[in-house]
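As a warm-up, study this chain.
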Amino acid sequence: MTITENNTLEMKNVVSFRGKVTQQKMEEVMRSFENLIQENNACRTGPTVTATYAVEDEFGHSVMDIEVLIPVDKKITTNSEFKFKPLFRLNNAVKIRHKGNPALLQNSVNELMQYINSHKLMPITAGYNVTVQEPANQNDIDNLIVDMYVGVCDNIL
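Now compare it with the structure written out below.
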């Protein structure tokens, strides 16, 4: 896997969600996203981007503090659950591309973090995961492609 520096992740007209959710609640959030986009007669213009800030255990269930970003083709009206961002930009990011089974995604995350540490870089954002290619079905699971970005500080201290 190749790791590159000085990358920019930029999206226009982004609908975002940030909250603490279980896996079940996450599925509801994604359905709400789709409904909101349809209600506004908008179309997606890029892949779904996610950032996980923390995972906690609450009463035996994993609860994720997560942000989901979806770019659309125009400004839309949002509700209290979602926000509209005219522009999302992550500068000076280190990036790795994961190709393959999602169960091995953590290996790519570990490799990226090892690179950041060994090059004495300072991470200043969560990892942003851009789903470049979704598997078509369960048999296609090894064809997943996810680009992972972590913003790093370019100060020399």
